[in-house]
Design goal:
Blueprint lengths: L4 H25 L3 E4 L6 E3 H17 L4 E4 L11 E9 L1 H6 L5 E8 L2 E9 L5 E6 L5 E5 L2 E2 L12 E3 L6 H14 L5 E3 L4 H9 L5 E5 L3 H13 L2 E7 L5 E7 H4 L1 H9 L4 E5 L7
Parallel strand pairs: 3-4, 10-11, 10-12
Antiparallel strand pairs: 1-2, 4-5, 5-6, 6-7, 7-8, 8-9, 12-14, 13-14, 13-15
């Protein structure tokens, strides 16, 4: 069952919109912790689980031969060459506390490359979307309007988004890293949702974003949106041994990761993030 980036984008957007309604319903009923994962502060709500199941059901009803990988459920194999990458609520702690910074994130890979991505802030309804045209060019939008990254700025003028691990030992490393980074940039912002941070770079609300310890479902859709808006997104192995995502406007990126890896030495640089094998 073949598909274009636009077709996969359209299905992702329709599905994300219906998922957002479920997230809002969960918020109205009241949010409680259903379980924890990597640590006592890494929470899962019943809404996370029910929304992911809804997304899986909707995608596979439309395209039963596709594969699906998601944060809360088991990987489902497929035969079509399309794999859906799902985060039902990116920013679950924000959702738990009622902070309006959490999103439904859905991306689609075709033969290992992300070709469609949708991120919807479930609290505000703002939609960021991207897809690959048949000629390989990227289209990125916010609420249907084209978006662009900020103009090039030097590292010392960058407002940088980041996040922190749920693991105490990883947080210790990140705190030490920030002590070295902060004197070299304008400031840090920590909003609590990787997909939304990447979209913030895409629309110029941040100059750059970096975070160690993210997963594929955190960055697949937002990363495509950022690239479509003029950013470069790459991955590396961070100082804590986990995947780090680095994102900045293309013209700023040459300075950004080299400075970053000098200040906080990455063990190795990997390829530009496309989704495949980036877990």
């Amino acid at each position: 069952m073949t598909a274009t980036g636009l077709e996969l984008h359209d299905l992702a957007l329709t599905t994300a919109r219906s998922a957002v309604e479920l997230v809002r319903g969960g918020a109205e009923r009241g949010v409680t912790v259903a379980a924890t994962k990597s640590s006592d502060v890494d929470v899962v709500t019943e809404t996370d689980r029910s929304v992911e199941q809804h997304i899986r059901d909707a995608l596979l009803a439309a395209r039963p031969d596709d594969a699906v990988v998601g944060e809360e459920g088991d990987d489902e194999p497929g035969t079509s060459g399309v794999r859906w990458i799902v985060d039902p609520i990116d920013g679950t702690v924000n959702f738990l506390y009622g902070i309006p910074q959490y999103a439904v994130s859905i991306a689609a890979e075709l033969d290992g490359t992300v070709v469609a991505g949708v991120v919807v802030n479930a609290a505000t309804g703002v939609e960021w979307t991207a897809y690959t045209e048949t000629d390989g060019s990227l289209v990125g939008r916010r609420d249907g309007q084209p978006i662009d990254v900020r103009p090039t700025v030097a590292l010392g003028q960058m407002l940088v988004g980041t996040g922190f691990s749920y693991l105490p030992e990883q947080r210790e490393l990140q705190a030490a890293q920030l002590l070295r980074l902060l004197p070299r940039i304008r400031d840090i912002r920590r909003f609590g949702a990787c997909s939304l941070d990447l979209c913030a770079v895409a629309e110029g609300a941040l100059d750059a974003y970096l975070e160690e310890g993210v997963n594929l479902w955190d960055h697949a859709a937002g990363g495509l949106v950022a690239r479509a808006a003029g950013a470069t997104v790459e991955t590396a192995t961070g100082t804590g041994g986990r995947l780090i995502v680095l994102c900045a406007p293309r013209n700023s990126f040459a300075e950004f990761p080299e400075q970053w890896c000098t200040i906080l030495p990455c063990r190795r640089r990997t390829r530009r993030a496309q989704g495949a094998a980036t877990t």
